[in-house]
Write a structure and sequence with these properties.
By secondary structure, the chain is α/β, with parallel strands linked by helices. It has one domain: Rossmann fold. Helices cover 39% and strands 13% of the residues. The protein is built from 6 helices and 6 strands. The chain has a 6-stranded mixed beta sheet. The protein starts with a helix and ends with a strand.
């Protein structure tokens, strides 16, 4: 690439990145995010804790944890610390929903915030992106019916969270504070990093 072409490319790169990734979202302060969760005006949507690997093994079966990617010892410790973080911020109990995948259900139980109800609407979308519109619609409908109200924690997967809020990448044990909104780009109030 010649010097002039390189300079032209570097001059338009910020605009290209803005078009590709969208505009930056203003996020609420961490204290405000916790207040939204405590008041039941928003929901905590969490990616399961550390489960080494990617996707699901070829022999994967729902209900058979031996056929799945599971939490590591560090992942289990992270899930417990995540529950401690909720309690330190005034949330000792919650309505907890989880994907039926073992790594999500175990994360949800280890939070220690209450009984866990497994639900298909939070099941992994990895390799199943065609199911995203129906899952997002079910989740949006659930939020519209239940908010404002009780404190809710939803444990799911990276692909699900990113599809629901239209980006950014969800790290293991990261809390996305979300609310119902017609546009995916307006659902994310902010993120709370893993403990």
């Amino acid at each position: 690439m010649g010097r002039l072409a390189r300079r032209c490319f570097l001059a338009i790169l910020p605009a290209l990145l803005l078009l590709h990734f969208g505009t930056a979202r203003a996020e609420m302060s961490r204290d405000d995010l916790w207040e939204e969760l405590r008041a039941g005006r928003a929901v905590a949507m969490i990616r399961h804790a550390l489960a080494p690997g990617t996707g699901d093994p070829p022999a994967f079966r729902i209900g058979d944890c031996a056929s799945q990617r599971n939490l590591s010892d560090r992942g289990r410790a992270d899930a417990r610390r995540l529950g401690d973080l909720f309690r330190a911020n005034g949330i000792a109990s919650a309505e907890v929903l989880s994907s039926r995948w073992c790594r999500s259900a175990e994360t949800a139980r280890l939070l220690g915030l209450g009984p866990v109800r497994e639900t298909e609407m939070l099941d992994s979308l990895f390799g199943r992106s065609a199911e995203a519109p129906a899952r997002n619609a079910a989740l949006l409908s659930h939020l519209e019916r239940t908010l404002p109200g009780a404190v809710q924690v939803l444990v799911s997967h990276q692909a699900n969270i990113n599809a629901f809020v239209d980006g950014p990448f969800a790290r293991e044990s990261e809390i996305f504070v979300v609310r119902p909104a017609a546009r995916a780009s307006e659902r994310l109030l902010g993120r709370i990093p893993p403990p």
